[in-house]
Amino acid sequence: MSSFGYRLIAQDSGARLGEITTPRGIIRTPAFMPVGTAATVKALYPEQVKQAGADIILANTYHLMLRPGAERVARLGGLHKFMRWDGPILTDSGGFQVMSLAGLRNITEEGVSFRSHVDGSKHMLTPERAIEIQCLLGSDIQMQLDECIALPAKIDEARRAMELSLRWARRCQRAFADMAKPGQALFGIVQGGTYPELRRQSAEELAAMDFPGYAVGGLAVGEGQAAMLETLERTVPYLPKNKPRYLMGVGTPSDLIESVARGIDMFDCVMPTRAGRHGLAFTWSGRVNLRNARHAEDPRPLDEKSSCPAAREYSRAYLHHLVKAGEFLGAMLLTWNNVWFYQELMAAIRRAIAEGRFAEFAAEYRDRLANLEPNGE
After folding, report:
1. Which among 146, 265, 268, 303 is annotated as catalytic?
2. I need a surface site. Which of 4, 37, 72, 255 has the fewest CB within 10 A?
């Protein structure tokens, strides 16, 4: 395979079963991408991520441009070789992290200037530089630079950021045409806050640019699930049916199921890895807080329904001990379990769509998954 493409295999109401082809392999959709922010999925070996069932991972442009540097990664053979991951990699543009992490940032038509949160050094991220960095990293799917604003936001602010993101999309597209290698793909990002008319304008103008794929950005930033899902309902119908749709930075198991029902194909979120590092496990029987004292003498495995070794071969008592003692192995085992659970969930979603029973699957698990959110106990 030398080109990028998307094939819709089956559709069950709004839910879509498909495949994304890339030179480095096929991505089965709906897909959840484990987040490898700094060229590593925290607390896991690459082999464990692949064994869990992940076809693709995400890496972060902002963090890698600051440390170790995109040019250094390129000199060392590119991101895939650097981190020993031979499957597809998606990189975000860095725009969200600039807005949320960087100090003294200043947005202009040219781009965004900021000081690094690592050492205070000055940087300028333009649409062209964002693409250059991603091409140096060698990622298979790249994202346009956009401006992501916090919600709620006034309509004038949402419109300004959306229109700027559209202009940056055109610049990213031109830069990508000059710098990308065959088989790489650039996605546009729909913005517009929670305003349906802005989302429609953004989606229609991006669709006219004919990107290989489209992301819905600027959600899961404080607006709540109901507003997020309503925004998806007002956005997805204006995106091409023959291209993949990616909801950025989402989310909980409930978010995934509800968003798949509304036509989303790809997801990423730090939730499964972050929860694992904080003693929280996702299981098919509910969320488990291993910090809780009631697990101290529980000899049962974490999740008998899981095929993950971490879930089946270690007792809750032992995992509780590791978490309370602050041992690295606790974070490693719970992260492995959580990444595996998310991949099992996506596989179950794909099977349900293929068999024409996604609505039944969603209804069956909706109440159960409501108990899986890692909000503590």
Report:
1. 268
2. 72
Element (H, E) at 231: helix 225-235
The 10s digit of each residue's pLDDT in 267-293 is 999 999 999 999 999 999 889 999 999
Please tell me which residue in 92, 146, 255, 265 is annotated as part of the active site: 92
| 142 residue type, one letter | Q
* Cα distance between residue 176 and residue 183, in whole Å: 12
Q: What is the pLDDT of residue 285?
A: 87
Peptide bond into 299 cis (omega under 30): no
Gap between the Cα atoms of 22 and 6, Å rounded: 9
**34-335-67-181 Cα dihedral, nearest 10 degrees:** -20
Select from 140, 123, 141, 142 the least CA-distant residue to 131. 142
Query: What is the pLDDT of the chain when averaged over all its residues?
Result: 95
Which domains are delineated in the chain?
5-269 (3.20.20.105), 278-363 (no CATH)
Residue 298 CA, chain-centre distance (Å), reads: 34
Q: Is 268 a catalytic residue?
A: yes
Quick check: 328 pLDDT over 90? yes
DSSP state of 180: P
pLDDT at 102 over 80: no
In 142-219, which ranges are continuous DSSP H helix? Answer: 155-179, 196-208
Whether pLDDT at 166 is above 50: yes
How large is the angle between the packed helices 358-369 and 328-354, nearest 10 degrees? Answer: 150
In the predicted structure, residue 372 carries a pLDDT above the cut 80: no
255 is catalytic: no
Helix (H) or strand (E) holding 291: none
- Residue 174 contacts residue 168 (beta carbons within 8 Å): no
Band of the pLDDT at 222, cuts 50, 70, 90?
Answer: confident
Residue 376 reports pLDDT greater than 50: no
Element (H, E) at 260: helix 253-260
